[in-house]
Amino acid sequence: MNVSIVGSGYVGTTVAACLADLGHDVVNVEIDEEIVETINAGEAPIHESGLEPRIAEHAGDSLRATTDYAEARETDVTLLCLPTPQSEDGSLELAPMRAGAEMLGEALAEKDDDHLVVVKSTVLPGTTEEVVAPILADESGTPIGEGIEVAMNPEFLRMGTAVGDFLEPDKVVLGTRTDAAATTLRDLYAPILANEGTHLVETDVREAELIKYANNAFLASKVSLVNELGNIAKEYGADAYEVLEAVGLDDRISERFMRSGLGWGGSCFPKDVAALRAGAREQGYEPELLDAVVAVNDEQPRRLVSLLADHVDLEGARIAVLGLSFKPGTDDVRKSRALDVLEHLENRGASIVAYDPVATENVREKYPDTDLEFADSAEAALEGADGAVVATDWPEFDDLDGEFDGMARRVLVDGRRIDVDRDALEVYEGLTW
């Protein structure tokens, strides 16, 4: 199938490379010329495990990138993978989606054959049919349902495992208005739907939009509940991991997402929960439980720094922060709990030296005028430090041992429960254990 994908960010690039891997001919439409050149050179514009080899294999053949929206006319289906950033009030900022729909609509004005436009970005119920569809119809001069059709197909990609999540998902959700649109999407995803254990969910557009939010809100709530239980366990001197391991044996609960610690971050959970809360309020409903979920999550970095302050006078102290990305396996620092840790440490007068295997440059760009010091290794970050915290559980931190010898005081407060040799430290304390 000939597929066009508007947007070459985290989702768009991953989806494009994976669809090419499945045998489709894919063109990425992207306004950033540098990203277009990167993809066409066979390189990945983002750090994601398994992505670059696929781009390298298919670039110039079944995968290419362009800045020309007119190329979408030569395809059967277009997937809109555009950013929907969070506004200050938590609501969705739809300007990128509107702009992309306008340019796509203009391009489709000169197409005679039918075309399916699929929103893959995370948007609140009603956006596909009430925002995207009217723009497409106005710009193309073609009424929806009379040459152009719209659908919703949410993504469930996790950074660090996005390629595997796309190729072997637990579910594929198709929100369509017509049988023809559903058939096209089933054909597009046929190799994936053939996987044992992959469920096909076919529903209406509005339900498909809400499924993504409900999915992430549930998982974020579970993590915050686990962290609240972990905080309570800590107060009782109990190990939350042993407690929650037993709880996870209940098949109504499961063992997934049962690691208590510093909390959730990244590009999805914070934005999606905020958008759902804001959307609920627009509908006249107060989402009190989701408000509490966010409050618990926001408290974890402060608790981590407070635990460190129990052992180290932070005013003027040199503190090593291990990990900056919101999770291991990615360079993404959006809404990373590590950044909140940095802020709390700075507010308490600490001098900070930070290390991350891949995310350092992203933090430099985010805080160009900061006094933060960045180290090239965990050992360098720990050298001379009066204390240290673990904010991201990169596997390499499990192997730290003699590196602690260079610290002024071998004090470590762990926000992620790394598998470090605790005997190598004077003080080891876990956030919730």
From TrEMBL:
Keyword Oxidoreductase: yes
Catalytic reaction equation(s): UDP-alpha-D-glucose + 2 NAD(+) + H2O = UDP-alpha-D-glucuronate + 2 NADH + 3 H(+)
Protein family: Belongs to the UDP-glucose/GDP-mannose dehydrogenase family.
Species per Swiss-Prot/TrEMBL record: Natronobacterium haloterrestre
Binding sites annotated in the UniProt record for substrate: 212, 257-261, 265, 327
Pathway: Nucleotide-sugar biosynthesis; UDP-alpha-D-glucuronate biosynthesis; UDP-alpha-D-glucuronate from UDP-alpha-D-glucose: step 1/1
An example Gene Ontology biological process: polysaccharide biosynthetic process
Positions annotated to bind NAD(+): 84, 122, 271, 334
Pfam family, one: UDPG_MGDP_dh_C
Active-site residues annotated for this sequence: 268 (nucleophile)
Entries under PANTHER family matching the protein: UDP-GLUCOSE 6-DEHYDROGENASE TUAD
Keywords (A to Z) from UniProt: NAD, Oxidoreductase
Protein name: UDP-glucose 6-dehydrogenase
EC class: oxidoreductase
E.C. code: 1.1.1.22
Start and end residues of each UDP-glucose/GDP-mannose dehydrogenase C-terminal domain: 320-420
GO MF annotation terms: NAD binding; UDP-glucose 6-dehydrogenase activity
